[in-house]
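User: Structure please.
Assistant: Input sequence and predicted structure:
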Amino acid sequence: MKELVEVIAKALVDKPDEVFVNETETDKAIVVELKVAEDDMGKVIGKNGRIAKCIRTLAKASAVKDDKKVIVDIVD
């Protein structure tokens, strides 16, 4: 899951070296924290949060096979 979010975020931002993804896994959930440069925050969130919602949707679709819940947090 971490790799998926990282690849998507690096493709969206201007400073891919400043993309950091941290993954924490519990029994039923995976929490993915995404941190990008302050200048790139708008590119990851998008208008009205559309891009962030798409990233979350892709992560959830990828986790269906593992039967786990995925939470993607965008940290500033």
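The longest strand covers residues 29-35.
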